[in-house]
Specification:
eight-stranded mixed beta sheet; 23% strand; 31% helix; alpha/beta
Length: 217
């Protein structure tokens, strides 16, 4: 492991805005996120958050909410953690964990809103169960979200977007809106100009950004 990555991991061990294995809070955070933040603000969780650009960006726009970015890559979470400190944001934190284990860290109906931002599309048929909009994940999100909680997806992947539309057609949902070209749609203003590293990359390559949101019925 490189010296720079080791330094990042050392920083993460000390960071108060990162929950990860080895810290006592890692074992007790489930059901206690509002105590962690020290308030009763709505809890917004971003899955596959990468470098945390979206969580940090949203935290700056919505100080009345708390944000948690979830990813398994510690070096990526370091970037989000340091950005939050640099901007003086105390309403954003990061959880280093596998998304399939989300129920180990959030209690039923503890989450007010979920974002899935540019996840790995897992295009191979053999990887279908690993797609973050597979029915097994949707069942987990339904359990963790409050009854009127929103679920959002942003992706550049045509295949993942079409798969998700087909999957959702078989699930009871409501208030469903979607677009295959977010920044040419009326929903663009709802995103406050916040873009992830990958979103900038994909947009520069000419890929349109797909977006959808819904509530479980």
């Amino acid at each position: 492991m490189g010296r720079q990555k080791l330094k990042k991991f050392e920083d993460n061990d000390k960071a108060g805005n990162i929950v990860q294995a080895g810290k006592p809070i890692y074992e007790t955070i489930k059901g206690n996120w509002r105590a962690f933040f020290g308030n009763d603000k709505p809890l917004v969780v971003e899955l596959a958050c990468g470098r945390g650009e979206y969580s940090v960006g949203l935290a700056g726009v919505f100080p009345e909410k708390n944000f948690v970015g979830v990813d398994i890559k510690g070096a990526r979470l370091w970037t989000g953690s340091q950005a939050a400190y640099a901007q003086g944001l105390d309403n954003v934190a990061f959880l280093r964990a596998y998304i399939q284990n989300l129920t180990d860290f959030f209690a039923p109906q503890e989450i007010d809103e979920l974002w899935i931002t540019f996840p790995d599309p897992r295009p191979r048929n053999s990887d279908e169960r690993r797609r973050l909009t597979h029915p097994r994940f949707l069942a987990m999100y339904r359990q963790l979200l409050k009854p009127e909680g929103w679920l959002h997806l942003k992706t550049d992947s045509d295949s993942l977007f079409e798969y998700t539309l087909e999957t959702l057609a078989e699930h009871p949902i409501k208030d469903f809106v979607h677009t295959s070209d977010l920044y040419s749609s009326s929903m663009a203003q709802d995103h406050h100009g916040i873009k992830t590293y990958y979103e900038h990359l994909f947009s520069a390559q000419g890929f349109s950004i797909k977006y959808l949101r819904f509530r479980f019925a």
